[in-house]
Amino acid sequence: MVNISCCSFMSGSNKTGAVDEGLTLKLKDDPKADDPDYEPPAHFSKGRRASVSAEPLSMEDDITNDRVIHPKSDEQRKRLQNAVKDILIFKSLDQEQREYVLDAMFEKTVPSGEKVIELGDDGDYFYVVDSGKLDCYIKINGEEKKVLTYDNTGAFGELALMYNTPRAATIMSTEECVLWALDRTTFRQLVLLTTMKKREMYESFLNAIPLLQELEAYERMNLADALVTKHFSAGEAIIKQGDEAEAFFIIEKGTCIVKVTDRFSSQHTNEEVEVNKLERGDYFGELALLFNKPRAASVYAQTDVACAVLDVSAFERLLGPCVEIMSRNVSNYEEQLTTLFGEQLTIDDLRR
Fold first, then answer.
1. Contact status, residue 157 vs residue 21, Cβ threshold 8 Å
2. What pLDDT, in 10s, does the model give residues 194-227?
3. Residue 48 has what DSSP assignment?
4. Is the pLDDT of residue 346 over 60?
5. Average pLDDT, stretch 267-282?
6. DSSP character for 187?
7. 26-29-35-38 Cα dihedral, nearest 10 degrees
8. Is residue 327 very low, low, confident or very high in pLDDT (cuts 50, 70, 90)?
9. Does residue 151 contact residue 13 with C-beta atoms inside 8 Å?
């Protein structure tokens, strides 16, 4: 069984570390609550949630059982898709799983000054911010202090659902807000189980990459959470020489070729020359991220290729222990260039 004790999914506008801010949206303050025809979403509690024990999860569970659907207009669906597009936990879902999650989410308007969740409460829902601002307070030295603000983006409330612990923070709206809520059961079945399966899938793959041996086991699990698989067709350019760097790539399957523009040989053809071939477990794109410079080479898919992709912010956050090893590769690359073109060249020469 994969250890899930280190995963943390939370996105806020100020990029601070994860804080669980469980929510209990209070229907008594919803103007729709007085409408005799209004029915709150299924499983939505009007009162404070009673304590429960953690539900057992099995890797064999069917994550599409007991599907929950809250109907949405096209406009609502579009807003929801936009709200979740940068939320990390949604990136680990395939298209079908993502649609199940979106179907299960429902919209809730929160007035200004509402305590959306309160420190110590049990957690029923995971939340994504569609619009509006909310402040997060945690207890420091016995006093609640504001630690971050959600400004029209972000997600919170997952830790209490994952670990069955009380809410560790209070969230209060500072203006009218629109939130999307996902119930506890759907969150655990669709999101948590998917993450566990993803970690299991990546575990042996990441353990076999020499570069990542510098990472602790829990660091490799965090890396697995942040990786997103992307597919490239044979002949497709994955990165291009001179482009700005946005991601780091590890080849899951297939073969890639590395090319640089020939501006240094006696022919000066300015055509691309193959300098290396990469296979499963090889990685590329790290130097431009390490030194914050444009790409020094182009990489093309020679066959159909799948790459595990890590964006620049996650690269900086998660691969710190590997930086020295990756920096050492500069001399290896420069030796290859010297052999190929017959003169002493540096990586920076390729960027000019």
1. yes
2. 777 777 778 778 888 877 877 887 788 788 888 8
3. P
4. no
5. 84
6. I
7. -20
8. low
9. yes
Phi, psi of 214 (to 5 degrees): -70, -15
Strands annotated E in the chain: 106-110, 115-117, 125-131, 133-140, 143-151, 155-156, 170-173, 177-183, 228-232, 237-239, 247-253, 256-261, 272-278, 283-284, 298-301, 305-311
The Cα 152–Cα 131 span in angstroms is 4
Q: Give the orientation angle of helix 74-84 with respect to helix 95-104, to 10 degrees.
A: 120
Instruction: Give how far Cα 25 sits from Cα of 41, 154, 172, 273, 286, Å.
Output: 12, 17, 11, 60, 44
Which of 126-130, 279-283, 324-328 shows the lowest per-residue confidence on average (mean pLDDT)?
324-328
How remote is the C-alpha of 336 from its chain's centroid? Answer: 35
Give DSSP secondary structure letters for 206-236. HHT-GGGGGS-HHHHHHHHHH-EEEEE-TT-
Beta bridge partners of 182: 126
Does the pLDDT of residue 257 top 90, yes or no?
Answer: yes
Neighbouring C-beta atoms of residue 28, cutoff 10 Å: 8
Q: Do residues 192 and 166 touch, judged by C-beta distance below 8 A? A: no
For residue 222, the model assigns a pLDDT of 81
Dihedral sign from CA coordinates of 238, 217, 95, 155:
negative
In this predicted structure, what is the pLDDT of residue 38? Answer: 40
